[in-house]
Amino acid sequence: MRSIFTPLYLWVAFLAGAAYAKSRNACPKNPREEFRVGKAVYLQSNKEHNSIISIPIGHDGKLHGGMITATGGMGGDGIDGATNKPAGPDALSSQGSVVYLFAVNAGSNTVSMFRIDEIDATHLWMVGEPAAIPGEFPVTAAVSVKRDVICVGYTGAKAGASCASFTPEGLGQMNQVLDFDLGQTTPPTGPTNTVAQVFFTANDTRLISTVKGDPNTNKTGFISVLPFKDSRSSALESHDTRSSPSGTSVLFGGVNIPGTSHLFVTDASFGATLLNLHATTDKVSLRQKIVIERQQATCWAAYSQARESVFVTDAAANRLIEISDDGSEIMSIIDLKNGDPGLIDLETSGRFVYALSPGNGTTSAAITVVDSFQGRQIQHFMLDKLGAGKLSQGLAILQ
Fold first, then answer.
1. 91 lies in a domain?
2. Does 300 fall in a domain?
3. I need a labelling partner for 236 at 20 to 30 A (CA). Which of 29, 191, 201, 282 fits?
């Protein structure tokens, strides 16, 4: 069978219910033709023997079937600082553990790379062996297709970020580009005071890292901005710029807002923020603070091109919040009635939102599929038969 090496972003969102929608996006102009349905959803089991679970997406946006492919590495579980027991359901306390198709292996300090079959997007082949990371407990990855570079963030006793070039034949050597002195352990005790996410700006000129603060110890979180050396280079500068935007505390998952210099980043202490990245100083400042009522741990975000909005999820609330891309208003609240305890990683594809609930030992892991234009759940896809457990992490979609 032929295979392809194409970009994909592995975060997915799970939601359902009724909502109030912003009038400008109440109905798509041509929902069948304007917004194409994705090909497959991917997440990782994050078990001792880690695997990628790949599930095809039908023409109606619904999921069916699925395949399991070993990553060659081990999953990992952070420590919950409140209980001193293994964390769950948010075992990695991060966003972007599966991307393009790469997956981090927190328990073995490696990252795995896969090729995707051209005809059946659920068929994967690992390229080479998992690459060793010069750090501990990797939780998040970012990929620049333009520069053929992958960067991995890690948050254990040796915290920071490392990057490597890649080709269709495999990964190059991972080299450390950032060092974060968090005073952590391996596995880390969190979810606060840990690396949350690494991602590239929309124009592929800078690596963004979000690092959570710890309000209980007056430790301030920050955003790191590390530029590439020039417009074509795959090498990054030796020093980053770090900012702690006013009013923020536990910065978590982030996305770029298309056509702007703005970053939309969740904050688990109150909701979400719209931040501005200065074009010359690389300083990050607050533009909008979005306080979400009844939120407990708003941590994950996904941009919807179809809705021109951002969807966010909460690990302790079974609902989907939609916020305008300028951060000015909450556009919809979709309360789900499917029995999930809460939602973590999510992603959008066309008019659909895919959100993951990893389960909690009592409830099974599941993905909720929501039609964002209708504001309702169209599917609650159970993952127990595909080897997913309460530690399942990451969500990505091949468009």
1. yes
2. no
3. 191
Q: Is the pLDDT of residue 14 over 50?
A: no
State the DSSP string of 12-74.
-B---S-----GGGSS-SSHHHHSPPPSEEEEE--SSS-EEEEEEB-TTS-B---EEEE-SS-
Asked, for residue 161, whether it belongs to a domain, the answer is yes
Question: What is the per-residue pLDDT across 203-236, written as a single tens digit (0 to 9) for each?
Answer: 999 999 999 999 999 999 999 999 999 988 889 9
Q: Are strands 79-80 and 189-190 parallel, antiparallel or unpaired?
A: parallel
State the Cα–Cα distance between residues 240 and 389, nearest whole angstrom: 37
| Count of domains for the chain | 1
Task: Give 13's pLDDT tier (boundaries 50, 70, 90).
Answer: very low
**SS3 (DSSP) at 75:** coil
Q: Rounded distance, CA 213 to CA 267, Å?
A: 10
Distance (Å) of CA 345 to CA 10, 81, 167, 289: 9, 21, 27, 22
Q: Taking the CA of residue 388 as centre, how many other CA atoms within 13 Å lie in the half-sphere pointing to its CB?
A: 30
Q: Which domain holds residue 82?
A: 3-57+65-239+338-398
